[in-house]
């Protein structure tokens, strides 16, 4: 389904068909798009720069995914315990829950809305693949956005320091991003990486999955209270 959406969206902004799709797994939307331009010999001079084409491509990709919403629900799936975990964390006092993803903001909203999870997240403060930053930087960007929004709401300065930020991740690359972005990391061994690999990467806490909602909530509470070593 994702490939079909890319095949539809790419020529709308690149002016030529997508014959070669770069590696997708674990990469941001901007990385995939820029590689696709090079792999398919697209001439971006008419649009000014490759960066200038990223936003219209993200919009075209989101539209292509929206048209395949039924396929998304049918072919996609929630990890066991994911819905219960995000709902429980959203109930914690003074918690702002958002997403850090390689997808663009419209695509991320679409995917979470398809499974009824969008109401638990503040998308305005998230970090997205269309931002063209590495994930470590995106964590800092999201934290700054959260502080700005909270300050406007509270009418006095609010900051989210490093000890108050937890990145829930499932890969060693994401654990590294948490370190770079100054966040605590809760790694979940539900992806391709094993629990041992996540521990070796330096995750603060590793859980086998998200099925124990109480453990997820307790871990996030502990990580945001404990001083960073």
- H and E order: HHHHHHHEHEHEH
Number of strands: 3
Summed over residues and divided by their number, the pLDDT gives a mean of: 88
In CATH, what is the homologous superfamily of the largest domain?
Answer: HAD superfamily/HAD-like
Strand count, sense and barrel status of the largest sheet are: 3 strands, parallel
The proportion of residues in beta strands is 5-15%
- The first-level CATH class name of the largest domain: Alpha Beta
Strand order of the largest sheet: 1-2-3
Tell me the structural class.
mainly alpha
Portion of residues in helices? 40-55%
What is the CATH architecture term of the largest domain?
Answer: 3-Layer(aba) Sandwich
Count of individual helical segments: 10
Cα(first) to Cα(last) distance is: 43 Å
**Rg (C-alpha, Å):** 18 Å
Q: Can you tell me the CATH topology of the largest domain?
A: Rossmann fold
Number of domains: 2
Give the overall silhouette: globular
Which parts are unreliable, with pLDDT below 50 for 5 consecutive residues or more? none
Would you kindly provide a written description of the structure presented here, covering whatever features stand out?
With 229 residues, the chain is mostly helical. The protein folds into 2 domains: 73 residues; 147 residues, Rossmann fold, CATH 3.40.50.1000. The protein has 10 helices and 3 strands. The chain has a 3-stranded parallel β-sheet with strand order 1-2-3, with helices on both faces. Helix 2 packs across helix 3. The longest helix is centred in the middle third of the chain and has 20 residues. The radius of gyration is 18 Å and the shape is globular. The relative contact order is 0.11. The mean pLDDT is 88.
